[in-house]
Amino acid sequence: MRRFPLCALALLATLALGACRGPAAVDRARLLAEAKGHEQWLTTGGDYGKTHYSGLAQIDRGSVARLGYAWGFDTNTDRGLEATPIVVDGVMYTSGVAGRVYALDAGSGRLIWRFEPHVDARVHRATCCDQVNRGVAVWQGKVYVAALDGVLYALDAASGRLLWRADTIIDHTRGYSSTGAPEVAGDVVVIGNAGGEFDTRGYITAYDLKTGRQAWRFFTAPGKPSPGKSGSTDAAADMAAARTWDPHSRWDVGGGGNVWDGMVYDPDLDLLYVATGNGEVYARRRRSPSGGDNLYLASVLAIRPGTGRLVWSYQETPGDEWDYDSAAPMVLATLGEGGRPRRVLMHAPKNGFFYVLDRATGALISAKPYVRTNWASGADPATGRMQPNPDADYSTGPKLILPSPVGGHVWNPMAFSPDTGLVYIPAIEGGGVIYAGADQGRRPGLVNVGVHMLLPSSVRDLTGLPAADVRRLSADGPDLGRQAFLRAWDPRARRTVWQVPTVGWWDHGGVLATRGGLVFQGSTDGHLRAYDDATGRLLKDIDTGSSIIAAPMSYAIGGVQYVAVMAAAGGGLWYVPHPENAAYTYGNLGRILVFRLDGGPTPKPPPLPPLEPMPAPPPSTAPAATVARGQALFAADCASCHVNLPRSASADLTRLSPAEHAAFDTVVLDGGLEPLGMPRWDDVLSRADADAIHAYLIKLSNEVYAARQGHRPPPRPAANAAG
Ligand code: CA
């Protein structure tokens, strides 16, 4: 149905070429020819190098004041939206909550087709950071997406019809999920998975683009050494990795190293670069008692897509024990280094160092902190190996670590402008306190980090730690402040050129740079802002009423440039309702928002109704020991979703009605709210466990209720960081 008008248009436009393209006509030649995405935006990062840069300049420093609303599309979901859309020949392809896919007319927003995968609710127990998806891949008439449960789908780009599906998960009883965009590399489409907070051994799998037949699988953590049984296409690389682990490592927990986001294919060198996540369990002395660098955790790997074999690797955080995922998106570019152009890979992972690597060899060109760091002194100039600071070992007591386990920069895409030579990073300053918890053995399919983490705003937040530790950590007081910035970083001079603060440390949306001299960034406060790429001066500010965390992108149709962004808060720490966020006032219904010059005013969602008065909770009568046991169970199994604050994304369990109290066991144990995404827990929790959790919540509800009656601030919820 789409094919004929598109074809006719393409025919008119390209008579000289004599070509007539079908939908989603993306291939190697076209990606190379339209390398800077002038009209199209062909990968999640725009081009082969995923620079998140648009060569369009109709919207520029002068005209951006006229930017206004062109069209919008409601996804009718209320979880985070993190994908950067792809636009090919006037059609937008993008993904939403849990791997839904939308194909839209990019000029009008008209829905062409949608795809909704069936996802088992049980996978929600295995997600640290919301039910998000970071995008699709589009290639030769097909759209590829990985759903939250790890099933990879190939869809017909014209109709959304299912062409093939592949279950990419090796063991569904473990805490695997999938949130990243698939990557097309040579003749295969590659997908990884998340689960580095659970009990998973990370890996990526490649599938034939046309048939979905598995081509190869590369494990990013070695697993228990067992000759001939590594499971990896590259058994030699697996053996090499195993030599950097204690033979008596906690193999049962899996090791982590998950590839949950950054992958980018390099057509010049025929290499697939893969960015790996944190180690698990977090504390290295528990994970690998005799130490070691624990390859390939927190690394960048270069893999030959035709064979699934490793060509080089560079580890950014040796022996990671700070949740320093290196999973952030990578940018490929050519930079003048040492008086000659070098093909480089640029990366700003959670560990706070900005890396420039030679992408042919993996040689380190530079590693400089782009935020405050104290876990490492830098890279050894002779070997390139990072030098962790002995003081960052928390096996002897709580340590304040910079950056915090939230990281200096995570998945939100950074952008590189070849015009300014600058990288625009959504950067997060600030530390976190981390200390080892009790070893409770492996908890199948559940969180297995084995440490506690605090994100202190002040010394007051350290209460509960031993007094000597509080005194020692208090001496670091000035480092406790946290704040996010849009930071313009010069990768050659290795310094910040300009920066602007965001509304808070949790606000670090993805970035778009353009040839119009602009840098665009959305905010959780609901504003889309455009800055001068050379100075950081704010040139345009549009209040959309929708919280934004995803990266904007740009495309053109018929000589009109558009800027588009997906809007809804979520992701890591997704459940915390900051009153500064637009979602707190307007709710969090997902939207795709598109702008052009001389567009109209942006329609805001209707404000939420005022909060209902808190219902009086039932009396708290359970013994203190039961309440304490319930609190511990809640912290282990419930607190990663339920923060118990008004207007958080998951139910505020201090505000249950009498009917909801009566149904508590039915919901927790029997799956009474499975259709709404609340999984059942009867395989983990006994009825006595559920009753203890309920007793704790009733006690907490009474404290909150009493505080509200007395206008005292309610008790602070425990901080929890994952991502
Ligand atoms: Ca992590």
Task: Give an overview in words.
By secondary structure, this protein is an alpha+beta fold. Helices cover 13% and strands 28% of the residues. The strands form 10 sheets. It has a 5-stranded mixed beta sheet, with no helix packed on it. The longest helix has 23 residues, at 687-709. The two termini are 42 Å apart. The model is unreliable at 1-18 and 717-723 (pLDDT under 50). The chain binds calcium ion (CA). The site of calcium ion (CA) has 7 residues, from loops.
Question: Which SSEs are present, and which pair or pack?
Answer:
Layout: H1 3-13, H2 28-33, E1 53-54, E2 67-74, E3 86-88, E4 91-95, E5 101-105, E6 111-115, E7 137-139, E8 142-146, E9 151-156, E10 162-167, E11 183-185, E12 188-191, E13 203-208, E14 214-219, H3 235-242, E15 263-266, E16 271-275, H4 284-287, E17 299-304, E18 309-315, E19 331-337, E20 340-347, E21 353-358, E22 364-369, E23 376-379, E24 386-388, E25 399-401, E26 415-417, E27 422-429, E28 432-436, E29 451-454, H5 467-474, E30 483-490, E31 495-501, E32 511-514, E33 518-522, E34 527-532, E35 538-543, E36 553-557, E37 560-567, H6 582-586, E38 591-597, H7 624-637, H8 658-662, H9 664-670, H10 687-709
Contiguous helical run count: 10
Ligand inventory reads: calcium ion
Q: What characteristic shape results from the CA principal axes?
A: globular
User: Which percent range fits the helix content?
Assistant: 10-25%
* Mean pLDDT over the residues: 91
